[in-house]
Each structure stands twice: as C-alpha cells, then as structure tokens.
C-alpha cells in the first residue's frame, strides 16, 4: 500500500511543488494539505496519514506545537512527523525534535532526498543527516542545558560500549559508520542502539541525539 502523506506549509506554491514530486512516486500518495498547525491537526484526525511533512513557522499554530500534539500520548493515529527547515536551520527545529518529530529535512533538498526521507520515516526509522544534525545541535546549543547539570540517573544504566554508541549516534553517524569506528558488525551496532533506546525510554535516534546533548554526554562544538 502507498505511504499516505499530509503536506503542511503556509506557502501554497511549496505545497504544490512537493505534491508534484511525491505523486510521481508509485509508493507515495498525498492525501491532503494544510496551511497551518490547526488545520494539520484536523487533517491528521480525518485522513490518518502515515507521514506529515511539517513546516515550522506558520500562522495560528506553529509546527512545533502541532508536532507535539500529533506525536504526543493523546495522539489519534500512527502519523510520523518529518520537519521542514530552511538552509539556515530554523532555531525551532531542536524543539520540534524534542516534541516528537522523527527527523528533519532542508526545504531545498533534492527531490530524491525528500522521497527517501519520507520512506525512511514511514518505516519507523529516524531521518538523521549526519552533517546537518551535528551543525544544528551545535548551532543551537544555547537552547540546550550547559552540561554542568548532574548526569541523569538513566545514563548510568548504559554499559560503556552503549555510551560509546550513544555518543556516535549524537554525532549523526549511521550504523555502518559506527560499526567501522568501533570495529564491530552493523548487527552488533543495531543491537546496542536498541538497548540504548529501551534503557533510556527514547523513541528513536533523533531523541537519542538530543538526549546526549541535554545530558552533557556530548558537548556542543566538541569533536
């Protein structure tokens, strides 16, 4: 069955462009559009999309609050949120990720990257572009704790290797890149990532990356 996509952006021209790109793919179906966060909530309830392509800055209700309501505990369906941001990396993207977004994509990304991102998110994975993720978290480090706060108790539940893996996830590395860095198999890395998410009560790699910064495990700007 086709992946059902809801387009949320206050610029009709952009929505039209996204629709044209996505409807050219046999496994993607645009089921609706919305021009602000409130409309998005109504459309999610009515249309039950698999993926919501969500803009950040919109009238009435922004993408952060809409994401929080769509992915929160009172959610009405299985929709995943893929946040759209500008080339300059919108300062609210960190908040959107913390609110429950499964990843983010630049608005000027190539068509193929947009299509692949939607497929990845629909499959339950997180959309992390390594260089962009690192740049985003470092750029908006002032929105995160300084790292001088006490280390959360939950972090102590991880083994030394799981901590290593979490640090690399926070840097935006893929499973294959982590495997190469630690000289282990991708299957082993996937197992470690699963353990990290379970022990810390996190949903995906995006939340794991934010957690690593918030806990002080990874310092903004550190290599």
From TrEMBL:
<dbReference type="InterPro" id="IPR001789">
    <property type="entry name" value="Sig_transdc_resp-reg_receiver"/>
</dbReference>
<dbReference type="InterPro" id="IPR058245">
    <property type="entry name" value="NreC/VraR/RcsB-like_REC"/>
</dbReference>
<keyword id="KW-0804">Transcription</keyword>
<dbReference type="InterPro" id="IPR016032">
    <property type="entry name" value="Sig_transdc_resp-reg_C-effctor"/>
</dbReference>
<dbReference type="InterPro" id="IPR039420">
    <property type="entry name" value="WalR-like"/>
</dbReference>
<keyword id="KW-0597">Phosphoprotein</keyword>
<feature type="modified residue" description="4-aspartylphosphate">
    <location>
        <position position="55"/>
    </location>
</feature>
<keyword id="KW-0805">Transcription regulation</keyword>
<dbReference type="InterPro" id="IPR011006">
    <property type="entry name" value="CheY-like_superfamily"/>
</dbReference>
<dbReference type="Pfam" id="PF00196">
    <property type="entry name" value="GerE"/>
</dbReference>
<protein>
    <submittedName>
        <fullName>DNA-binding NarL/FixJ family response regulator</fullName>
    </submittedName>
</protein>
<feature type="domain" description="Response regulatory">
    <location>
        <begin position="4"/>
        <end position="122"/>
    </location>
</feature>
<dbReference type="InterPro" id="IPR000792">
    <property type="entry name" value="Tscrpt_reg_LuxR_C"/>
</dbReference>
<dbReference type="GO" id="GO:0003677">
    <property type="term" value="F:DNA binding"/>
</dbReference>
<keyword id="KW-0238">DNA-binding</keyword>
<feature type="domain" description="HTH luxR-type">
    <location>
        <begin position="151"/>
        <end position="216"/>
    </location>
</feature>
<dbReference type="Pfam" id="PF00072">
    <property type="entry name" value="Response_reg"/>
</dbReference>
């Amino acid at each position: 069955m086709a992946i059902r996509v809801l387009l949320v952006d206050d610029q009709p021209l952009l929505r039209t462009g996204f629709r044209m790109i996505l409807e050219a793919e046999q496994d993607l179906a645009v089921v609706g559009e919305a021009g602000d966060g409130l409309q998005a909530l109504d459309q999610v309830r009515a249309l039950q999309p698999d993926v919501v392509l969500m803009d950040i800055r919109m009238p009435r209700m922004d993408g952060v609050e809409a994401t929080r309501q769509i992915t929160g505990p009172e959610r009405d369906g299985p929709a995943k949120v893929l946040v759209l941001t500008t080339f300059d990396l919108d300062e609210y993207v960190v908040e959107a990720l913390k609110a429950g977004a499964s990843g983010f994509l630049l608005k000027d990304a190539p068509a193929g990257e947009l299509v692949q991102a939607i497929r990845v998110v629909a499959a339950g994975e997180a959309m992390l572009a390594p260089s962009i993720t690192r740049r985003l978290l470092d750029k908006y480090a002032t929105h995160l704790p300084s790292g001088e706060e006490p280390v959360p108790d939950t972090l102590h539940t991880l083994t030394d290797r799981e901590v290593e893996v979490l640090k690399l996830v926070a840097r935006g590395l893929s499973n294959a890149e982590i495997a190469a860095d630690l000289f282990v198999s991708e299957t082993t890395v996937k197992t470690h990532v699963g353990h990290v998410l379970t022990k810390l009560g996190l949903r995906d790699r995006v939340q794991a990356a934010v957690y690593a910064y918030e806990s002080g495990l990874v310092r903004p700007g550190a290599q």
